[in-house]
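Question thread 4412

I'm putting together a teaching handout and wanted feedback from people who do this every day. The idea is simple: show students a protein as raw sequence, then show them the structure tokens that encode its fold, then repeat with a second protein so they can compare. Below is the first pair exactly as I plan to print it.
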Amino acid sequence: MTDTRRRVKVYTLNEDRQWDDRGTGHVSSGYVERLKGMSLLVRAESDGEWSPSRRDRGALEPPAAPGPGRAVGRARRAGEGSLLLESKINPNTAYQKQQDTLIVWSEAENYDLALSFQEKAGCDEIWEKICQVQGKDPSVDITQDLVDESEEERFDDMSSPGLELPSCELSRLEEIAELVASSLPSPLRREKLALALENEGYIKKLLELFHVCEDLENIEGLHHLYEIIKGIFLLNRTALFEVMFSEECIMDVIGCLEYDPALSQPRKHREFLTKTAKFKEVIPISDPELKQKIHQTYRVQYIQDMVLPTPSVFEENMLSTLHSFIFFNKVEIVGMLQEDEKFLTDLFAQLTDEATDEEKRQELVNFLKEFCAFSQTLQPQNRDAFFKTLSNMGILPALEVILGMDDTQVRSAATDIFSYLVEYNPSMVREFVMQEAQQNDDDILLINLIIEHMICDTDPELGGAVQLMGLLRTLVDPENMLATANKTEKTEFLGFFYKHCMHVLTAPLLANTTEDKPSKDDFQTAQLLALVLELLTFCVEHHTYHIKNYIINKDILRRVLVLMASKHAFLALCALRFKRKIIGLKDEFYNRYIMKSFLFEPVVKAFLNNGSRYNLMNSAIIEMFEFIRVEDIKSLTAHVIENYWKALEDVDYVQTFKGLKLRFEQQRERQDNPKLDSMRSILRNHRYRRDARTLEDEEEMWFNTDEDDVEDGEAVVSPSDKTKNDDDIMDPIIKENEEKEVLLKTNLSGRQSPSFKLSLSSGTKTNLTSQSPTTNLPGSPGSPGSPGSPGSPGSVPKNTSQTAAITTKGGLVGLVDYPDDDEDDDEDEDKEDTLPLSKKAKFESS
């Protein structure tokens, strides 16, 4: 059996900083004569590639590499029994153990390696070998501390006052490159190298040599200069960056970075920056310092993004100062532009001027978009001041003008600017549009322009419409609306939105649903309607009476359910989700609207048309009916069974519809037999809610009962005996009910006509009284003095009849006898109402 402990996958990091799988094999360690030292060897499996299990795959994700070392090794492509890896364990290489099954290190610059073990034991074994060669404790997770140097190095650094650089000559470029490379692993040496480069003006001398090498076409010297300049970047010093990025040096620095030894031909970055990239001043900038800062930031950003090679994870941290340099430059540019009032005034004046030509306006909008993008680098308080300045300058009226133009590129840029404003301060936008509504017609309101652009998006994938829908959702989200002592933004804005804007949003929906099926059912229209439904569903969930009034008055749900007939499943599901959200609110206003308009019909029709296919439509519809059953929404249960049972009775692969039918039958039974229902409720209360206090009260009442009240020949029943008799009383009732249910099921055919009338009025109470026609015997379920009747002191008068009163709310009687907490209050009320008046008096007096 193959030893799985040393089974590994070999990974290498590519130029895109993605880990490549080089193959699977078995790792070992041993002395390699050719490499003159202990080495790691990985031989490919002879039986083909290893396909790890799910558990193994979780541990075999390629990790982030720690840092570069100077080991000698190479990873090869897998071949049967071939050598995948041969790597010398160098004493100075930083090996790192991660996640118990990973060992990561760097072989050379931009060449990172990882071994991913199948088992932790194998990883620990190889890790001990590496630590043994390097003289480290195996308990550490990284073999080289990149911050602290050895005592010898520290002594050398303390004894030498500074680092002496070789003279800046062509013949010594290789020596300089080696010195820079050897200083990078040590923080103290990096510090000394940086100070030496600053003090001696060394960078400018190196750039002079660059011109000499280019003139002489000295490719070897240019390659050395590339390594030197790249190493200076990794020193991570702001003072050096200021020299390198100065107006006189930056283009030469870019020139040095064109000669990457790994490339057969040098890049042409300088040619691109000087000839292709053009600086456009859409508004003349009078401040030369600002202009120079913009040029510098663009070029440094270009160096970071395009010129420098992809850094390893180790080197990425060394470029943090470069990121900071660009960041603070952008902050300075935004601040200087913000302070230039003349510049901003001219900008907005030209944006809104009808005489401005289209090309110029496009440049102005693009500039403003980039300006807003730069502002994202500001601190929160500075960003507040920035957007306040733009607001005072009239950015929202300007955007309104721009969004009304025909140029799609200009409108797209204006949409991006609008998104910055909405994400930063939606209340500012809401306040503007509400003030605007007092002066302008609905057609030219800013929000209506946004909705129209969403509806009229020409992109087949509706990319712009999706972005605009997200902005609209942010604007109508009550979660980010303010409430002050004087006014409530939610009330004011939602009132405005439903009065002035909602009809624009629903226009495509209403126009497309005038018939029994969508009048236009192409893909783009379906996508648009799906976006509209998504926003309406959001409104149902987060708005209250505004959306409720709108849906009921405009008959929106009926129009939405027309889309259930769409050939696009995603649109039909959007319509179903809209209805499901409404039903989920369990609001009787919505329920009465659904029943009155028979709005389950499109859903049932879609369910039947879907047939026996087990898909999302099938599951979603069943889930909706299951929700109605589980939540016991009585009105909808009765409506569905009365009107659609015949169509649904044959569905037997789920019990949802049969469960709904059972709910309905229980409800009808309770309405037809109020006396029985009351008795069951009383017995249930007596059985499930007896505690010590109840027993004490009953015993006290029993002992306080006058002997004159007890007639001759009657048995006096103690409270303990009453609890024993409960089960005896319930048994015939339960059996009788079971027989009725079986009888109903066997005789059930077709649509059932309910034996009761639904009352849709809420808040009313109806008392149903039934007079017992026969004499109740002691111990019978209906007798007020029976052991099952709470409040009975134990004596049962003969030949008494009982008047049972059942109180129902909303004209509906509860359907199911479940001991739920939410029925406790009603049960207490039933319990009290079923007592004779004389007994009530005794309870009250006690």
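The second pair follows. I'd like the answer to focus on this one:
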Amino acid sequence: MSTKGETSTGSGASRSTLPLKLSQLQNFCKRDPDGYKEDYDAQSRRLVSLVGILSLSPNADPSPSLVELIQFMAAVSSSSYKGEESDRIAALLMDLLVGSSSSSSSSNQQQPLSPAGSAPLLQSTLPLAALQLHRDIRKACVSALILMRNKGAVPPLRLLQLFFQLMAVVPDKNLRESLYHHIVNDIRNINKNGKRDEKLNRTIQSFFHRIVAASANESSPGGEDSPTDYAAKRAVQMTCDLYRRNVWNDERSIHILATAASSPNSSVMSRALRFFLNIEEAMALDQKSTEEAKWAGSETIDLHLHSKKTKAKQRVVAKQIKNRQKKQHLREGLIEAQREDKGVESSRKLFPAIELLNDPNGLCEIILKRIKSSGSNTYKFEVKMLMLNFVTRVVGNHELILLPLYALLQRYMGGHQRDVTAILAYSVQACHSYVPPEEVYGILKTIAHNFITERCSGEQMAVGINAARAICARVPSVLSDEEITNQDNNDEGKSKSISWDVEAFVRDLAGYSKHRDRSVSIAGKGWVNFIREVYPSLLQGKHRGLVGSGLHRAGEKPLRYGEVRAASGVEGADLLVAYEASKKAAEDEESSNGDEGDDNNEDEWAEVESGDEEGVEADEGDEDGWVEVDSDDEDNEDEEDEDEEFADDEEVSDDEAPDLVLLAESNGEEAADGEDDTEKKLDLSKMSAKDRAKLQQQVSSTRIFTAAEFAKMQKLVERQKQARRDPRLAAKLKRAKAKGEEFADISDDDDDNSDDELHIKGAVNATDIMADAKRKRMSKAEKLEKIIEGRQKWEAKERPGGSTNTEKKRKKNFAMSKFAYSTRKKMGEKTTAKHGRSKTSKVKDGRAAKKRRRKV
């Protein structure tokens, strides 16, 4: 389309009198808005007239220049005439899209979004003129409005409701996709580079929530999708995308998706449920792909192998190689940190989106009620499985008590049920320590009857045993062997005792460790290993093994339902007291031995000079008499003694903090100085559990521990746990205790390195961020000590007792084990065996060649 250029009133000779195209006029309006205002107004009036003609006959073919004119007016009004003119053009295009009048558009301009109390946000249908509008004109209007929004001429809230209404009603798929991507990108740009507009975010999120809530109130299970349902699906999908891109990862977004999860519409509900179940994996994959893309970009280097080598190219290649080495070191450092330090990763929640749910119990009850009340044609089987997966995961993550869930799961545990493995997995993740054992008994019995029987295949039996092991691991109170009493309402108050024979159940499953099928045998061995750790007394002696026997002697058993092990003090405080008492007794013994040696040396002769002989004889003469001392000297000696005692007290008070004293010692129960070493030692094995807990609580409440003492207690507790699991180590400690060397293997060398070498997982140590040149190097003595320690570790035999069968087999003569099965199996593929096989084959061929042939 062209326009006639007229003489200028204010710009003089700068105006052209030749016909102008719209692209040229757009350039001139950008350079001189005031000079070309009349030409712009003419095109504006022309646009209004064409839009009026199109609204009268929407079925007619539009003018070919209308699309170009719409783009021109949107570009010029949003850049050169921003303000009232751009608002007028935007309102005109919105009226053309929705088919409304200018009066209604002015009212919509003042209130772009409906308040919370008003009802329906979106119209279910559009006028006939808007529905019959040509797709090119509709696409041109949408692209023009997006252009004006990108230039800041139109606020985002004005377009949001319009675009949602178009997505809900207009059947143009390409247009709906473009609208969807524009809304998502617009919200991302609003919150880009750390500049978050929280007020705008809250307004948009409240609009999304009202759309989803309206869909949940209007729709019915199994009904057809309405325009509100389609808008709700789009709102849920946008919220999921924005959460995945870390734009909206707050509680308000989770509340929108929780409302969508309670919607009766299957499409809206399934989108929200898939988000809660898969969002963490999707975000992890996105992060991994981003890191791999960064590494792939730095990995490819053009070395110019087939081109001319210049200095500039060599500098570019050297720079690329240097950058790749930096990224490689950074990547290796991140991998090493993730491998070694799991403190931060373990402290994170497994499902953060599920953790942000406001009312998880109410949401699970709504969905569970919908599963139980819906018929076979209401929801598809896949949707029901999705609902069960979500409910069980929320119950297991929040540790909810939803008792009707376990009875429902038993209905789907048939041997020929579709996706029965997934049902068993959902049953496992629905169990936690707060579930009553009576509810879990039914699930275990159903699994045992339907899967762990000889009529089932090996795969079914292995799945059943593994499921039972996982359930018992999550609810260890099921293995407690006490009887459960149920009150029967039909027997007039008589109690009916239902005994769960745990021992028989455990031993039956343990018997499958010797099954002929390999998968069943592996599952049975896994069950046996689990019972060894939790409750080894339920197993037979042949199944307990080394660890199970040690825990059986220690009395290891799971807690009963509702029972909690409450900490009575700092763990290992009693062991620390026993260690210090043993250490003090050893020091006192050494000092007493040293004093006896000094007494023995007193009778020896001393060399005396000739000048001192007279003094010695005088002393020997006065040995039995009194020594005369003046009274003044006595007073001076007393004053000097008092001054020395006062000086000692001052030195103690200035340099050292006073020790905390137990109340028992202050009441006169302090141990005597001349007590024996056996009385000073503290024997914890002779104390009961209550006495040890009392001692632990008393020491923890009257003493302040240092970092070195915490490290020492951790070592002592770890050694005690290992002794409970290993009978050999327990016997070794018992023999050392009889010799008085119970704590000989624990040294005090680590006490000096109190806070410098103590590293807590998840915390940042100063040496990690220190420069390489500033790090403390090992001295020559430390290097030599490390070398000697390594030699002793590999050369000396640390294990007590005789040699093992492996060591004996290694030292055995080869001629004795030459024809053993292990040797023959090992030598099967070696060259000697191959040579032997080829030799025998050649012999056979030679014999066959010597056979006489019949003459013809």
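Top answer:
Good format. For the second protein you could add a caption like this: The chain is about 60% helix and 0% strand. The CA atoms of residues 193 and 571 lie 48 Å apart.
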